[in-house]
Amino acid sequence: MQKTSIQGLSKMAESKPGLRKPTFTKVDQLRPGTSGHTLTVKVVSTKMVLQKGRADGPQVRQMRIAECLVGDETGLIIFTARNDQVTVQV
């Protein structure tokens, strides 16, 4: 695992236009219809709801969707993980 200092991360963020420092949110602060939140949560359970191959040119690409029960000390939510996110969650 590569270690990067906090100072190094902020320099990386400054060098790329459009990036900003993440503001962390708790589950109880989430509201319907909003997006772009950064949370630190624990995965309680996962359930694969869709997994199928899709022809995308010469390669077959997997499409995966999982529902994940995640939470912190303020509450629990269902997070819908898609494709690469499913690998991280499962």
UniProtKB/TrEMBL annotation:
Record domain Single-stranded DNA binding protein Ssb-like OB fold: where: 30-88
Signal peptide: none
Chain residue ranges for the region called Disordered: 1-35
Name of this chain's protein: Single-stranded DNA binding protein Ssb-like OB fold domain-containing protein
Highest taxon, organism lineage: Eukaryota
